[in-house]
Amino acid sequence: MFTGIIECLGTIIQIEKKGSNASFFIESPISNELKVDQSVAHNGVCLTIEQIENNIHKVTAIEETLLKTNLGFLKPGDAVNIERCLSMNGRIDGHIVQGHVDCTATCLQKKTMDGSWEYVFQFSEKFAPLVIEKGSICVNGISLTCFNVTKNTFTVAIIPYTYEHTNIGHIQENDSVNIEFDIIGKYLLRLQNLNK
């Protein structure tokens, strides 16, 4: 379980393809603190640490993950948002995040405000019931608040700290981002559909 509060940025050093899988070698300030078999979110995707050497760790994404997330578009040199799992004696500063990406969304607009930034993202209309005004959403693993919600778009505002300490600043129009909808909303929608 995660909170959507990014701990640091990692850099893709190397990508190895084997069959339908892709292994990522990532250098980060916390790679040498990780443990093999630990779950760590990468752009909001929960992946298992397989190997650690110096300040580089290795994770592998299977075909299903590559198809449903933006990990398949990553290349060496790209920045990745990294968050270790929640310690149960800690505060939840963001919202409850599982690291299970539901879909990708496309950046329609990036707008520079006076001291902040606004992004408009477009997602599949089938997920419309899961996006609510002032609700929580996870974008590339970052816990954010939606506004100006339509049936297939939402806007998020980014403060300077988030812009500088995550990879949101690298996102440009037409780029793909990972989206995880609020788990509580998903369960409520499921219950509602079962009771119809």
TrEMBL record:
* Coiled-coil parts of chain: none
List the InterPro entries.
ATP_synth_asu-like_sf, Lumazine-bd, Lumazine-bd_dom, Riboflavin_synthase-like_b-brl
**A biological process from GO:** riboflavin biosynthetic process
> What catalytic reaction does the record list?
2 6,7-dimethyl-8-(1-D-ribityl)lumazine + H(+) = 5-amino-6-(D-ribitylamino)uracil + riboflavin
Q: Pathway it belongs to?
A: Cofactor biosynthesis; riboflavin biosynthesis; riboflavin from 2-hydroxy-3-oxobutyl phosphate and 5-amino-6-(D-ribitylamino)uracil: step 2/2
Q: Which domain of life is it from?
A: Bacteria
Q: Name one Pfam family in it.
A: Lum_binding
Entry EC no(s): 2.5.1.9
Domain Lumazine-binding: residue ranges: 1-95, 96-192
Q: Which UniProt keywords apply?
A: Repeat, Riboflavin biosynthesis, Transferase
SUPFAM superfamilies given for it?
A: Riboflavin synthase domain-like
Q: Where are the transmembrane segments?
A: none
Read off the Gene3D superfamilies from this record: 2.40.30.20
Instruction: Look up keyword Transferase and say if it applies.
Output: yes
Q: Where do the Lumazine-binding repeats lie?
A: 1-95, 96-192
GO molecular function terms here?
A: riboflavin synthase activity
Which EC class does it fall in? transferase
What task does this protein carry out? Catalyzes the dismutation of two molecules of 6,7-dimethyl-8-ribityllumazine, resulting in the formation of riboflavin and 5-amino-6-(D-ribitylamino)uracil.
Tell me the protein's name.
Riboflavin synthase
**Organism of this sequence:** Hydrotalea sandarakina
Specify the taxonomic lineage. Answer: Bacteria, Pseudomonadati, Bacteroidota, Chitinophagia, Chitinophagales
